[in-house]
């Protein structure tokens, strides 16, 4: 690549000695050299991605290999590249010995690696988005099923995997992605950008409703488990204040958004009846007036995305455990 760059510089030198304008020959020489540089750069990126993919695939296979790769990446990025001593690294390992042995921490690292693998695949030239969506949903399902295990480390699962120590060590922090969530716990974004769009058709409204219900259930399960203090013991049927707020405030918002989505997908009759009933059953909800206005707009053919959720609070999953 260095030779190619020198070749381009030599063309500029020739052009400069001949006048201000490039000749046709100079232009052709420049384009030829730039093509070589671009090909070399693309080849280096492809090789870097393949190396990262191989390492991440291996490490994601077990908690032991995941934490081993994590430690190696820490040593490379935070010590060797910073020209710090081996004794400093050993001291770091000693201080973090307990965390490195925690099952929940190692499990969270595995999820980060699995999501990085998805991003690398999504950044390829012809990604199979249907397969990637299936894999993304499996990861979310697994996290929800193991919510108690990763409770103390769920902040790691909200972190963009392109900012992790894995991505830094393998130089994949700047993946070129379009609308692909970068963290495994960006559940709203995962559903909105990957899961729901293919279902927004009149012949798939049943599946659309089903996925919305799954989203509501998963978000609720995470709030339910992560809103309880480690030493807190609730009586049977008792709810935390945070979970109570989710049930009373957020769930009605999500159910409203479900019906609006189904209406727009083409099942207007069923969705309209459901929206009317939803407003009647939730007259005390703070968003009820907004829903009513949005419903009128929809019936009058005014369909703006903002009207369905205007004034509603964020319904994202809590970013970290209490």
Task: Summarize the topology.
Elements: H1 2-18, H2 24-59, H3 63-80, H4 86-95, H5 97-100, H6 103-122, H7 129-145, H8 154-158, H9 165-169, H10 187-195, H11 205-226, H12 241-265, H13 268-281, H14 288-299, H15 305-309
Helix pairs in contact: 1-2, 2-3, 2-6, 3-4, 3-6, 6-7, 7-10, 10-11, 11-12, 12-13, 13-14
For the report, how would you describe the main beta sheet? Answer: none
Distance between the termini: 52 Å
Unreliable stretches, pLDDT < 50, 5 or more residues?
A: 1-11, 14-18, 306-316
Shape label = flat
Give me the count of strands: 0
How are helices and strands ordered from N to C? HHHHHHHHHHHHHHH
Percentage beta strand:
under 5%
Radius of gyration: 26 Å
Task: State the oligomer.
Answer: single chain
So how many helices? 15
Q: Considering DSSP H and I runs of 4 or more, what fraction of the residues is helical?
A: 55-70%
* Overall mean pLDDT: 85
What's the domain count?
A: 3
């Amino acid at each position: 690549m260095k030779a190619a760059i020198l070749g381009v510089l030599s063309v500029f030198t020739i052009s400069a000695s001949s006048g201000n304008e490039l000749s046709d020959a100079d232009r052709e020489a420049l384009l030829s050299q730039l093509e070589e540089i671009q090909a070399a750069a693309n080849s280096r990126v492809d090789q870097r991605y393949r190396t990262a993919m191989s390492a991440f695939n291996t490490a994601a296979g077990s908690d032991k290999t995941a934490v081993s790769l994590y430690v190696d990446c820490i040593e490379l990025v935070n010590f060797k590249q910073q020209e710090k001593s081996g004794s400093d690294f050993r001291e770091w390992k000693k201080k973090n010995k307990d965390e490195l042995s925690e099952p929940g921490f190692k499990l969270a690292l595995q999820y980060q690696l699995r999501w990085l693998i998805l991003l690398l695949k999504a950044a390829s030239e012809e990604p199979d988005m249907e397969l990637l969506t299936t894999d993304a949903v499996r990861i979310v399902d697994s996290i929800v099923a193991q919510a108690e295990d990763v409770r103390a480390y769920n902040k790691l699962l909200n972190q963009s995997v392109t900012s992790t120590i894995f991505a830094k060590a393998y130089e994949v922090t700047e993946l070129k992605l379009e609308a692909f969530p970068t963290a495994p716990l960006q559940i709203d974004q995962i559903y909105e950008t990957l899961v729901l769009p293919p279902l927004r058709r009149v012949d798939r409204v049943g599946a659309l409703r089903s996925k919305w219900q799954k989203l509501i259930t998963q978000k609720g399960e995470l709030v339910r488990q992560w809103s309880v203090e480690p030493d807190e013991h609730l009586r049977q049927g008792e709810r935390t204040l945070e979970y109570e707020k989710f049930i009373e405030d957020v769930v009605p918002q999500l159910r409203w958004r479900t019906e609006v989505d189904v209406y727009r997908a083409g099942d207007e009759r069923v969705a309209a009846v459901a929206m009317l009933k939803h407003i009647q059953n939730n007259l005390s909800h703070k968003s009820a007036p907004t829903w009513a206005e949005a419903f009128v707009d929809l019936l009058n053919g005014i369909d703006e995305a903002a009207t369905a959720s205007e004034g509603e609070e964020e319904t994202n999953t809590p970013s970290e455990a209490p």
